[in-house]
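Exercise 7 asks you to align residues with tokens for two separate proteins.
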Amino acid sequence: MKMRNVTYWIFLAPCLLALFVVLVLPFIQGVYYSLTEYNGFQVNEFVGFENYLNIFKDEQFLYSLMFTGGFSIASVIGINVIGLLLALFVTQKMGRVNTIFRTVFFMPNLIGGIILGFIWQFIFLKAFEGVAAVTGLDFFKGWLSNTETGFWGLVILFIWQMSGYIMIIYISFLNNIPDELVEAATIDGASTWQRFWRIKFPLLAPAFTVSLFLSLSNAFKVYDQNMALTAGGPFNSTQMATMNIYDTAFKIQDMGYAQAKAIIFLLIITIISVIQLYLTRKREIDL
């Protein structure tokens, strides 16, 4: 028994060491730097909690947090609604066509965020301007030069990228719902909507837990799409929290302050994610 325990720890040690070196040690180092005046090369002064106090006076960072929160809410709702609808569509009995649709819907997730940003930048700037010229509708003009439409441009891009990925999760859970339950409801005269809402939807609660967590955490971490599509413009009005932290660290060279922002941002994401997991897990039903 003792030999087995020793072997267990021998095999586990490299993984624990890697986690410590890659995650734990940088985090501890980052907490220390957040308490200092650090420019990326040397620590000039230990300032304690001054960096954290300055965050509450930083209007641009507070705005970027609110902008990121609004973006995350809109994106999470859109991604999960569309992802579920796509999953319901491709789980219909359509033969080999299902595989083609699944591949097509999942493909945007394979494209890098920078490339996606430039693709949609072309659509919003060139394609929309062409539509505006043909139809005469001002709605399609200047999508990325306006704060409101720039916001929805980011949401559309992110939904297009993530919906296919979330679709796969819903597909796996839909396929695990016993056919007997659906058949029994059909025999009892339940309509298509009633079968979905009364049987499938409650049994998809574990899928909602996973999908909401993934879409929420990814929405908060968006950076490359934001940089490629709007670069935070106009006048930083579409700047997300990650871009604000990056600019503070590498443009202003105030890495101690940027690290304090990053830790506050991490705490916000952690708290929201824990609350989301707690609430959604309460709704899960075991088959």
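Second protein for Exercise 7:
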Amino acid sequence: MRQDDVKTTVQQQFGRHAESYVTSATHAKGEDLPLLVEWLKPRGDWVVLDVATGGGHVAKTLAPHCRFVVATDLTAPMLEAAANAHREAGLTNLVYVQADAEQLPFLSESFDAVCCRIAAHHFPDPDAFVREASRVLRPGGMFLLIDNVVPDEPELAEIVNRVEKLRDISHVRCLSVAEWRELLQKYGLLERKDRLRQKRFLFSEWVARTSSSKEQEEAVERCLLDAPQAMKAYWNLDVRDGRVQSHQIDEWMVLCQKGGK
């Protein structure tokens, strides 16, 4: 699929489910949100960029600690849903820009920090995204990435991405930690801190969030149940009476600093 077609699919998928990402407990109440503040230690004069803001949870978390936050997303309905949630929360120091993460419409060295949370697996060109994030950061600025990652084993990684794509047509590819580290180093983003954690999901809620039919949900469940034993162990599947109850995936959180200061 061409990159333009992928991005159109992303816009259509997230446009349909915009409100659910604002209210999703997985996105709105993740334990990584408090860590954003703890790790970044934002200052009151900072200008922060939140790439692919989705439901606006990163922007909402950081806005009270910064001068202002620029929230971007490829999908206009997502930005509108996030902006509405921010207004209801009484936040006023945010601006919203519809933008492609791989072609950010900002001058170089414009931001004190750039964040992207649980979104990069939808980007067709992660290399371009990291290049752009580094470009718009000021020297010494902070880059914080959170995303689902796959195992280093190619066979297991391929199965994870196949299941994610079956569940969500806007999914492109989760990278491994090693792949992300190669990109970060390539664009002068020096790793300062990281954390790998396992996130557990109730299967029914996880699969329903992006599905368009019961047939799609059943196909995803069948993939999990029919997976090789090594894959089932990686997911730590909880299966009862032949039905998947829950599973887990890996999430990587990394804080980097742009060289040059």
